[in-house]
Structure formats: structure tokens, C-alpha cells
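**Folding the chain**
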Amino acid sequence: MSKATLYSLAGLGGATGIGGGAYLLHENSKASKPEKRTVRSKLEKAGFKILDPSDSQHWSTLKNEYNKVKQDSTKVFGTHTQNIEEGELKSLCQSFLEKDEGDESYGKSKRWCVVPVTVSSHLGNLGRKALSTADSGEADKSQWETLASSYDNAPNKIAGTNNLGSGQKWEELRSKCKGLGDKKNYEDEFDANLSSSITWCSIPS
């Protein structure tokens, strides 16, 4: 970039001197500042899409689910004695999404402030392909067999399933994964189900 262009961008015309240099140094220092890491940016990095304020259908769903657990402080943004409206939930999300990424509200924001997803659909956002869990047929059988062959001796198993039995192990694993994949992000055990699904129910895309 030529000096003339630099000066033009700085609004200095053809002038030179200390003032122009100081301005450019100031601009460069601002540009080098690290971007603030917020709950919003952490969610986006994790593959979630922040819910648009105009998406009334999803807000209505989340509001109804929120009100079912409104007195459980581990799940909502503070307990409520009365049901909240969509506008209040939007305001809460707007506030908590701008908190530092390490804030304890991250998990709650994941429940209430993003476009709802199931475990299976979110796998695609993480660059993974959920294996078929159709009850009939043998879709993805070879991949299921590969995963099932290492399950019984693995340390990180699906909760409540110590082994896959003595029958068709790949079918048993497929059945377990079907139950995991339907879990929605605003429901309990979403994170645990997602973790298990990454390991046992999917392959890289």
C-alpha cells in the first residue's frame, strides 16, 4: 500500500508528520486487540446458531419449555414464580449471550438462546455424519459393526449400557443410538448424549 493511500485512509490527504504516524499506530493497536470471547462466540464456535429475535416459532417453543422448569435454578436464568413471555426470554438471552465465555450461564444459553437442534442434527454441525438408526434394513451396517466391535472393552460407554449383549451387537448399538439422537438441546442429558453419539453413533463426514 502506498503512502498516499495510507494518508487517504487516515483522512490526512498528502500531509506527513508525527500526527499521521501517531494516528496509524493507534489504529493498528486497536486492530490487534483480541476479540472478546463471549458466550455467544463460544456457542457459535461449538456449531450452534444463535436464535434470531424474529423467529417466533422457535421462541414460542423455547418459552413453553422454559416455563416447565422455571423454578429450577440449575436450568433457567434465575427462578421465576410466574411464567415468562417471549419478550422476556429474548431479553435474558440478549444479556447472557454477551457474558464472558467462561460464565456459568453458557449451559443455560445453550438451552434457551439457540436454534433448537437434536443430537443427531447437531452432529452435522460438528462435521460428523450420524449413522442410520432405521429399525429395518442394514443401512450403515459395516460402520455399526466396526463401532460395536470395540464397545464392550471401551471405558467411555453410553450411560446405562455396560455391554451390547450376546446377540447382534451392531443392532443393539444402533438401537441405543436412536434413543440418544432424538434428545433436544433444551432437554436434560443433551450434552451427555451428544458426547456418546460422537463416539458411538457417528463417523466423520
Remarks:
- DSSP finds ten helices and two strands in the chain.
- Residues 75 and 130 are 27 Å apart (CA to CA).
- The chain has three domains: 1-33, 39-112, 119-204.
- Residues 1-33 form one domain.
